[in-house]
Design the sequence.
């Protein structure tokens, strides 16, 4: 019976012998010199039987058999492996999906087995069970074959253990080899990957660039590393190429490295460095502004004390005071962003905080936005400044509201989370551990990637002029970072936005609640206070205010001068009111030294700026007084009185 | 060497067999070229690839002497004694040239009547 036959072997003599003999028998015979060519033949020709050599360049017989078996249209073909390694290697040919295996040997013997196999192919349904190798009689193991198999197995082991993806591509751009790492990176089964177009594996946005790289003659003449990355299987891959000579010309070895994680970390680091630089700049400006605003603010307040209600000048001073307060609010926000704001830390339950804020949030969001809270009952605690965390929630809610002009849903969710070293949420500068997670998501207009990249930059806004300062999200970022946490944002145009925040959990309570209200009436006393401030105008103001309130006041422009005054002063100094950042001896160091000679002395630091190393990450010792700059008459006199009245532990 | 007898053993016509032997000579020439280059550079893997290809075809056609010499080359490679490789390659070349000569001097169909098959 006439059969359709395909013979696949890379040796022209064997191909010629087989085709001549089978032609003579009256069969229709086609031949292919390697696996890739065989696959091309099989697109238009479905044979009854295939004779396949096992070791061939590119796609070998084992892989070709598996690929044929994966194709439902070719599943019924009777596959016979004809191999020269049958005597040297125990072949489980059924593992490849083959139906029989004939040992290569003298053609006069082998041809009988070939003819028998052709007859066998049409007679019964193939069993594909492991069976004996046909034609082994008189065939002995050969040193060459053994050596070659040993080399092949050595290279297979090396290629199989490499973490770098290795792909071999022929001049037509077809994949003819892929090591296991490449198979995993590309995310396709080897059977589907082999013989496919390498270019088509690259995602569309990068395909043209990859096409140019591969079309470049230089790529085919010397080893090259393409610096830009290619997206493949949603991964960022670096690509190096090495041309290799083979019998038919040149193939290209492509080395693929997954650099997605490195790219993500680089982007994070870059972002962190950028934010740090902007923060330093903003913090520095805010510090100098605070001193100026303190002078304006307190002079206005002093002037107001001298002018009664209804006087023309009083109205003008009130206007200046109002402007100074607005300016102070702006610098406060800049300091929060720059993480130079000194925080008064408390242990907080974020659930309680959100519940307390709900009423206000509903008012802020309006009727068209539904507020949904999903709070984890067993949520851990965090250590933070409660006012600042409220500001985080509020700023994110306002941001979400503005993204939903036609209404929508705002969802606040809390949960416990553990970030380990493999967590994608573990950003630069954040330690692995237990975190409180809370997210604020909306169903609003979302953001394009180019907007998303800039949202934490101060003064970046997409809102109309006058509708936002561009500081809201910068402040959120600053607060989260100062708490040792991290924030990420996911957003797609028309899909909405979700901010995910992770703040470190704590297990202990942090002492009493701080002051919540300030007395309206200016407090005074008769104690002795040493005021240390290098800004003359600020110092003079503080001294003037305190003297007005009947305190005995000593003053110094530097820490060193303060130590001398302390040494010479005969009476007791009850309170040291000192700036934090000063040339020479800084405030905390001065306080530490003065405590040796005056252990009973109380201390208040004046600052709106916490320098790293002076206060640890801006977190103040809970027993130490802090006066935020710019200060007012009330805040200065109130804080002084409160600290003087506080009983030391 | 009697091409007709060899052809019959394989179930082929003499002309068909001769065509295959001619192809063998051509591919072997390429193998030997590559083999010499590989011996020169000491490329062990390449030597084995070329000898494997050569041996396969020689075995198929029943050229036993060539098979034996090729095996000797492989043994030399395995034992890192490459001194005799070049000489063995030239012996193979000699055998190939001899077969090629036979092809050229092959008697016509009439002349070949009554000749005996030779051992290869």
Sequence:
């Amino acid at each position: 019976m006439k059969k359709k036959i395909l013979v696949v072997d890379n040796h022209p003599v064997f191909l010629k012998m087989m085709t001549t003999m089978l032609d003579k028998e009256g069969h229709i015979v086609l031949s292919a010199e390697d696996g890739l060519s065989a696959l091309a033949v099989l697109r238009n020709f479905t044979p009854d039987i295939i004779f396949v050599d096992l070791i061939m360049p590119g796609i070998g017989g084992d892989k070709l058999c598996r690929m044929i078996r994966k194709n439902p249209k070719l599943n019924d073909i009777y596959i016979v492996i004809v191999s020269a390694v049958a005597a040297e290697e125990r072949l489980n040919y059924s593992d490849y999906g083959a139906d029989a295996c004939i040992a290569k040997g003298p053609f006069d013997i082998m041809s009988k087995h070939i003819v028998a196999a052709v007859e066998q192919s049409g007679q019964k349904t193939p069993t594909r069970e492991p069976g004996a190798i046909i034609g082994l009689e008189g065939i002995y193991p050969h040193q060459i074959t053994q050596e070659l198999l040993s080399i092949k197995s050595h290279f297979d082991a090396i290629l199989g253990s490499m973490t770098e993806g290795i792909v071999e591509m022929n001049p037509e751009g077809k994949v003819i080899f892929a090591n296991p790492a490449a198979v995993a990176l590309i995310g396709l089964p080897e059977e589907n990957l082999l013989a496919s177009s390498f270019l088509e594996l690259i995602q569309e946005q990068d395909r043209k660039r990859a096409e140019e790289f591969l079309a470049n003659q230089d790529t085919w003449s010397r080893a090259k590393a393409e610096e830009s990355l290619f997206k493949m299987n949603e991964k960022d891959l670096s690509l190096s190429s090495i041309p290799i000579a083979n019998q038919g010309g040149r193939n290209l070895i492509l080395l693929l490295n997954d650099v997605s994680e490195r790219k993500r970390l680089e982007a994070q680091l870059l972002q962190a460095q950028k934010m740090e630089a902007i923060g330093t700049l903003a913090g520095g400006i805010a510090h100098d502004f605070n001193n100026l605003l303190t002078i304006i603010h307190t002079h206005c307040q002093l002037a107001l004390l001298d002018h009664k209600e209804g006087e023309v000048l009083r109205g003008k001073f009130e206007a200046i005071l109002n402007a100074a307060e607005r300016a102070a609010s702006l610098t406060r926000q800049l300091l929060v962003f720059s993480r130079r704001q000194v925080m008064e830390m408390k242990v907080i339950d974020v659930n309680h905080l959100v519940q307390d804020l709900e009423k206000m949030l509903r008012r802020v969001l309006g009727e068209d936005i539904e507020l949904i809270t999903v709070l984890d009952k067993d949520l851990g605690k965090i250590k933070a400044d409660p006012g600042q965390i409220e500001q985080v929630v509020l700023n994110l809610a306002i941001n979400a509201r503005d993204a939903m002009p036609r209404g929508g849903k705002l969802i606040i969710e809390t949960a416990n989370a553990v970030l380990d070293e493999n967590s994608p949420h573990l950003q630069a500068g954040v330690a692995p551990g237990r975190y409180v997670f809370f997210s604020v998501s909306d169903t609003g207009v979302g953001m394009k990637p180019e907007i998303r990249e800039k949202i934490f930059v101060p003064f970046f806004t997409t809102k109309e002029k006058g509708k936002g300062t561009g500081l809201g999200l910068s402040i959120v970022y600053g607060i989260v970072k100062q708490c040792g946490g991290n924030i990420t944002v996911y957003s797609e145009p028309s899909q909405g936005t979700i901010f995910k925040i992770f703040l470190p959990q704590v297990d202990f309570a942090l002492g009493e609640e701080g002051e919540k209200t300030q007395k309206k009436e200016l407090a005074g006393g008769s104690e002795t206070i040493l005021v240390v401030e290098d800004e003359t105008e600020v110092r003079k103001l503080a001294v003037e205010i305190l003297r007005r309130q009947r305190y005995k006041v000593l003053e110094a422009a530097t820490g060193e001068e303060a130590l001398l005054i302390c040494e010479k002063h005969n009476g007791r100094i009850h309170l040291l009111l000192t700036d934090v950042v000063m040339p020479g001896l800084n405030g905390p160091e001065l306080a530490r030294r003065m405590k040796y000679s005056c252990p009973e002395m109380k201390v208040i630091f004046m600052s709106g700026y916490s320098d790293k190393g002076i206060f640890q990450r801006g977190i103040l010792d809970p027993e130490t007084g802090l006066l935020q700059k710019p200060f007012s008459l009330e805040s200065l006199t109130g804080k002084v009185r409160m600290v003087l009245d506080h009983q030391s532990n | 060497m009697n091409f007709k007898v060899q052809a019959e053993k394989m179930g082929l016509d003499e002309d068909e067999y001769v065509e295959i032997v001619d192809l063998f000579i051509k591919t072997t020439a390429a193998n030997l070229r590559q083999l010499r280059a590989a011996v020169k550079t000491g490329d062990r893997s390449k030597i084995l690839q070329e000898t494997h290809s050569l041996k396969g075809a020689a075995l198929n056609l029943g050229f036993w002497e060539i098979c034996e010499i090729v095996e000797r080359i492989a043994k030399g490679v395995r034992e890192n004694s490459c001194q005799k490789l070049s000489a063995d390659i030239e012996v193979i070349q000699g055998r190939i040239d001899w077969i090629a000569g036979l092809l050229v001097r092959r008697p016509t169909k009439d002349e070949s009547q009554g000749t005996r098959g030779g051992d290869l």
Observations:
- The first helix of chain B runs from residue 3 to 9.
- Chain B has five helices and no strands.
- Residues 114-120 of chain B have pLDDT under 50 and may be disordered.
